[in-house]
């Protein structure tokens, strides 16, 4: 029997003082120095000294109770002890064997425990070779750990090498490993020697891998630092060599920056800030990251226009000629630009106006901005705001951020190279906002004439004067523009074009442009008016002219292909190529017509009438259908209608109830009837109050079983007392009526003044009826009269 076995068998039933050990695990076969300052530990130590100097050391759990320990620990012998003046002890313990707490008792405030030794699972005959292999693997891995960490003493290394069994090897190696308390407790508790060696080997391999990785990272950092230091030394040597040879030195860079700043002559505040940053740059190493940031900042200050301005044209006739040459019609915006030029000649103190061109797509808003710049003799810059959702896109980032830049406003001013450009803010109604801020709110300062003289970009950190800039914003709709932003702009409507206007635009602008772009400018290519009108009516459905230009380009590409196939441009001169686009040749060039305009029934129908609606892409026809059936007065509405339009339908029905005695309709009949109103093309959302009169006519037609007179369309908001209120988008709605072959349009009397601003061909293409009361529309649309 071994000495340890005899010792265990002799003392396994003895009670030992329980000493809780803080943040430490005591292993057998190791010498452990401890500093005991807490009461429970001191009492257990003193009790052990009274007995045979043996105690049970167990790791304390992470609680406030010192006696709350893990059940597994080590029976240890006190080798040395020294009591200090404050009552605490310094001791050295020698771990003897592992054990688990059995019973527990309390004696004079000292916890005594019986210990059940951990005997370990006996090794089977076939496993001895595997145990030996694991032991060698652990010893080899431990030696590697000692070599990498440089923190293992020679005594511990020797103990690991001399360990004659798995128990001792595991105890000595585990005690030296810098692993967490939980993992050490796991190694202390395992009974199976094979499993214990495997677990220990895993921890050793992981620690070796971590140390190797740390050394690799440290080596890279050291190498990088050495490279930076080497470059710095070489650069300093190069400076000294250049000085000796009389060459330009780094000082000239700072001198050039100072001269450039003086030449720019920015405001005093800007110059002071720039010089301060330049002084900081002089004190920095040339290769430091901050030096790069400051250089970029100073380059922006130097590149921006601070005093450079173009001279505005003073020839009003020439400016008007340029505007008329580039764009057809558009009287209002052209007049506004000419007015601005006239005022500029009288006073130079006028601030740049902030205009907002609003109209359907393809009506020339963006290109008009370029024409305004040419007419004024100014530089032109444009930024697209569609989809911008980050406030920093407008105001820029703080220059402390990596890769920071000024916002789009300052970037565009640098491109403009003058302080008074024409600045186009395209698609201002498409701004978005999210957690990164609200760009529309950032634009408030830009578009406020009282504030934009001191616009401050986050990157520049100094005020920049935008008061001399002529800002022009473009939008398809005003509904999505925040009111505070809209309030700062002068809104100018650019409505859609009529057929006559599109014809002139095609002949004057689109066809020559496309012939030039497709290499047929010298050829004799003509479009008959009937062919152009056919493209407008049956091959495009828009308020603008983008689709018209695409169809014209399609025709010209076909002609270009035909010309090349016939040898023009090589054997034959392109100037000899002649072609006329006729109505009869359109189907060959463009295919069949795309739009039939058959939404309007040719025959009169009960419950069917036509409203007129405005959309962001122009006007459109709004068919409304109503049927009735026996029920309880319920009103059913389908067709993807919005809340406002549903309210208009309820208002119309209530109005008809109120006047039913006058139109031979019994109120009780209405109460026993269900109404179903449907607006076709249900996939398209529809809303707005201007369909009120149309809904009332459709309901009345169904109730009276009389068809609505054909060829009519109508628009107007209906009140509960029958008044018809004015609406917006009149021109687009009238153009939609013309496109769909309608001859008569009913509009509110309050919109009659708007007719004066419409082109003559639009007014002559339709018979306009103005009404104040819904009953006037009923008299026009029903024959014979429905009134009693």
TrEMBL record:
Active site residues of this protein: 690, 733
Single GO MF descriptor: ATP-dependent peptidase activity
GO terms (BP aspect): cellular response to heat; protein quality control for misfolded or incompletely synthesized proteins
Subcellular location: Cytoplasm
Name of the protein in question: Lon protease
Keywords carried by this UniProt record: ATP-binding, Coiled coil, Cytoplasm, Hydrolase, Nucleotide-binding, Protease, Serine protease, Stress response
Similarity field: Belongs to the peptidase S16 family.
Enzyme Commission number, as recorded: 3.4.21.53
Coiled-coil intervals, chain numbering: 187-214
Domain Lon proteolytic: 603-784
Principal location: cytoplasm
Organism: Gracilinema caldarium (strain ATCC 51460 / DSM 7334 / H1)
PROSITE patterns the record matches: LON_N, LON_PROTEOLYTIC, LON_SER
């Amino acid at each position: 029997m071994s000495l340890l076995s005899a010792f265990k068998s002799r003392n396994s039933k003895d009670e030992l003082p329980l000493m809780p050990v803080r943040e430490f695990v005591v292993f057998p076969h190791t010498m452990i120095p401890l500093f005991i300052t807490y009461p429970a530990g001191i009492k257990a130590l003193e009790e052990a000294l009274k007995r045979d100097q043996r105690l049970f050391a167990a790791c304390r759990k992470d609680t406030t109770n010192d006696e709350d320990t893990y059940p597994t620990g080590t029976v240890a012998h006190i080798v040395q002890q020294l009591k200090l003046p404050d009552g605490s002890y310094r001791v050295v313990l020698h771990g003897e064997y592992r054990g688990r707490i059995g019973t527990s008792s309390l004696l004079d405030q000292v916890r005594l425990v019986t210990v059940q030794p951990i005997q370990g699972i006996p090794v089977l005959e076939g496993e001895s070779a595997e145990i030996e292999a694991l032991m060698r693997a652990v010893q080899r891995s431990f030696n590697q750990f000692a070599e990498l960490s440089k923190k293992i003493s020679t005594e511990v290394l020797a103990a690991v090498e001399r360990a004659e069994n798995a128990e001792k090897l595991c105890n000595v190696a585990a005690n030296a490993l810098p692993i967490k308390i939980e993992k050490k407790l796991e190694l202390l508790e395992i009974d199976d020697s094979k499993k214990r060696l495997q677990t220990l080997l895993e921890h050793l391999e992981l620690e070796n891998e971590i140390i190797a990785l740390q050394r690799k990272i440290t080596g890279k950092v050291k190498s990088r630092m050495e490279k930076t230091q080497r470059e710095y030394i070489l650069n300093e040597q190069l400076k000294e060599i250049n000085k000796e040879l009389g060459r330009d030195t780094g000082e000239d860079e700072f001198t050039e920056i100072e001269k450039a700043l003086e030449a720019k002559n920015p405001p005093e505040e800007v110059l002071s800030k720039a010089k301060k940053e330049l002084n900081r740059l002089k004190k920095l190493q040339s290769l430091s990251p901050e030096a790069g940031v400051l250089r970029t900042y100073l380059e922006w200050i130097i590149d921006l226009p601070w005093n450079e301005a173009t001279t505005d044209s003073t020839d009003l006739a020439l400016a008007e000629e340029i505007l008329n040459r580039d764009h057809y019609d558009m009287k209002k915006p052209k007049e506004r630009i000419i007015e601005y030029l006239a005022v500029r000649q009288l006073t130079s103190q006028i601030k740049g106006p902030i205009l907002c061109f609003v109209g359907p797509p393809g009506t020339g808003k963006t290109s008009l901005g370029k024409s305004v710049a040419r007419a004024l003799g100014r530089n032109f810059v444009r930024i697209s705001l569609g989809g911008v959702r980050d406030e920093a896109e407008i105001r820029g980032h703080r220059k402390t951020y990596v890769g920071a830049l000024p916002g789009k406003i300052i970037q565009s001013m640098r491109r403009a190279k003058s302080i008074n450009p024409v600045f186009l803010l395209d698609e201002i109604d498409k701004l978005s906002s999210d957690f990164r801020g609200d760009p529309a709110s950032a634009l408030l300062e830009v578009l406020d004439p009282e504030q934009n003289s001191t616009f401050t970009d986050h990157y520049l950190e100094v005020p920049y004067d935008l008061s001399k800039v002529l800002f022009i914003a473009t939008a398809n709709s005003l509904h999505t523009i925040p009111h505070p932003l809209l309030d700062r702009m002068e809104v100018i409507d650019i409505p859609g074009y009529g057929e006559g206007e599109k014809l002139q635009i095609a002949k004057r602008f689109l066809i020559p442009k496309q012939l030039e772009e497709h290499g047929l400018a010298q050829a004799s290519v003509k479009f008959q008016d009937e062919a152009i009108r056919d493209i407008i009516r049956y091959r495009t459905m828009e308020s603008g002219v983008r689709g018209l230009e695409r169809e014209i380009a399609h025709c010209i590409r076909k002609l270009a292909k035909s010309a090349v196939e016939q040898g023009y441009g090589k054997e034959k001169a392109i100037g000899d190529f002649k072609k006329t686009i006729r109505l009869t040749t359109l189907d060959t060039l463009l295919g069949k017509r795309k739009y039939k305009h058959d939404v309007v029934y040719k025959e009169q129908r009960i419950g069917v009438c036509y409203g007129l609606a405005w959309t962001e892409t122009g006007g459109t026809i709004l068919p409304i259908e109503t049927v009735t059936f026996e029920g309880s007065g319920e009103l059913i509405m389908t067709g993807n209608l919005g809340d406002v339009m549903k309210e208009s339908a309820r208002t119309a029905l209530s109005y008809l109830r109120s006047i039913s005695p006058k139109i031979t309709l019994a109120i009780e009949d209405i109460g026993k009837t269900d109404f179903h109103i449907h607006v076709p093309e249900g996939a398209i959302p529809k809303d707005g109050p201007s369909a009120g009169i149309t809904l009332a006519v459709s309901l009345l037609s169904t109730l009276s079983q009389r068809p609505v007179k054909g060829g009519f369309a109508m628009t107007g908001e209906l009140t509960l007392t029958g008044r018809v209120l004015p609406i917006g988008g009149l021109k687009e709605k009238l153009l939609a009526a013309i496109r769909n072959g309608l001859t008569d349009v009913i509009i509110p009397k309050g919109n009659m003044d708007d007719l004066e601003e419409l082109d003559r061909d639009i007014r002559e293409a339709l018979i306009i009826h103005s009404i104040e009361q819904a009953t006037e529309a009923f008299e026009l649309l029903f024959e014979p009269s429905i009134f009693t």
